[in-house]
Amino acid sequence: VQLVESGGGLAQPGGSLRLSCAASGFTYKTYAMSWARQAPGKGLEWVAGIYEDDHGTNYADSVKGRFTISRDNAKNTLYLQMSSLNTEDTAIYYCARWHGWVLDYWGKGTQVTVSS
């Protein structure tokens, strides 16, 4: 199993970024997927999840209405569209595979910095 995030970088407050996560080594379309993040000096925070075959999404209250999780099962790719970014969104963002009740495989993360 391999998960590789990309798309992070520097954004201004109020700006947008789109993260991608390329998945390989497993039957992607049969697994729910998630994004999580870790801000400097803070613990890991779950951000959003999407069920297999795109059957439903969930979001943390902190990002609801600003972030959108989606997936392309033909491309084995997970996305996170982030809008109305603020400085509290600065973090390393990870994609992870959901298996049962746990996130069992994680990518190495991509850094998102929101600053003017």
Give a nutshell description of this structure.
With 116 residues, the chain is mostly beta strands.
Task: Kindly describe this structure.
The chain is mainly β and 116 residues long. The chain has no helices and eleven strands. Strands 2, 4, 5, 6, 9, 10 and 11 form a seven-stranded mixed beta sheet that branches. Strands 1-3-8-7 form a four-stranded antiparallel beta sheet, with no helix packed on it. The chain is globular. The N and C termini lie far apart (37 Å). The relative contact order is 0.31.
Radius of gyration: 13 Å
Number of strands: 11
Largest sheet: 7 strands, mixed
- Outline the low-pLDDT stretches: none
Strand content: over 45%
Taking all residues together, what is the mean pLDDT?
96
From the spread of the alpha carbons, the general shape counts as globular
Structural class: mainly beta
Order of helical and strand elements: EEEEEEEEEEE
Helix count?
0
Instruction: Compute the separation of the termini in Å.
Output: 37 Å
Topology readout:
Layout: E1 2-6, E2 9-11, E3 17-24, E4 32-38, E5 44-50, E6 57-59, E7 67-72, E8 77-82, E9 91-99, E10 102-106, E11 110-114
Parallel strand pairs: 2-11
Antiparallel strand pairs: 1-3, 3-8, 4-5, 4-9, 5-6, 7-8, 9-10, 9-11
Defining traits:
11 strands; 116 residues; seven-stranded mixed beta sheet; four-stranded antiparallel beta sheet; mainly beta; single chain
